[in-house]
Amino acid sequence: MSYLTKEMADSAIAKMAAFHNNLKDFYERHDMDFLEDLGRRNILMSRPQENFFAEALRSKYPTAYSDGKTGQPDIIIPEINTELECKITSPHKSGSWGLQTDHGTLSQKGSLDYLYVLCNRDFDEFGVFHFKGLTIDDFRKPSPGSRGKVSLIMRNAVKKCSILVGSISSRTEFNLEKLSRKKAAATTPEQIEKINKSIEYWTNTPASYSISLEKMQNKPFHVENRA
Q1: How far apart are CA 9 and CA 91, in angstroms?
Q2: Is the pLDDT of residue 217 over 80?
Q3: What share of the chain is helix, strand, coil (3-state, %, to 5)?
């Protein structure tokens, strides 16, 4: 059971979107494109993510906070003695997602809670996924050149996930259900044999998942632009 709620996520996302629009307007006034480099954009949005989710958590946990200091947990919730790591990411050019963490930090901690915010280029579609108690076994091993960053293995971690915004669906289950319907409608031994081979493939292949974002509904929140 997540200590975060969809209402908390909606509130934080709306404030992040307002903050994002203010930054985008500020860049445009200086003849710069805020969306030119989504990696840099997401770095600039990481601190607002921590701040606005900590603020949302205080509706239930009044002492929750995020001080932004280097080396400190992203969000601390003293009432339940919990630290929450916050990550924000956009899709790769291929459309795939990389939900990452720092291998050294996780190895040292042993287990951590993660809040992944996934966003599109225009910052109006989101996925918000809360994973509790992730360990190094839930991530791939570091690869050369990764600078200690490791990617989440969704099939290992999905049972630890509370989906607050968006969806995570099993490609394996989808394809097996589709093949089952095709098999029921098959009329020749050749068709059935071909379908059985596909069923065997999807049954023996490690589970894979797809992520869908959710369009943000208009919210009444506003972040003042003081630039």
Answers
A1: 20
A2: no
A3: 40, 25, 35
Q: Which amino acid is at 23?
A: L
pLDDT above 60 (res 220): no
Largest CA distance in the chain: 71
- For 143, counting Cβ atoms within 10 Å of its Cβ (0-12 exposed, 13-18 middle, 19+ buried), the class is exposed
Q: Residue 7 contacts by C-beta under 8 Å, 6 or more apart in sequence?
A: none
CATH 1.10.287 fits 6-168+211-215, yes or no: no
As annotated, the residues of the chain forming the CATH 3.40.600 domain(s) are 6-168+211-215
SS3 193: helix
Q: What's the pLDDT score for residue 218?
A: 58
Residue 49 has pLDDT above 60, yes or no: yes
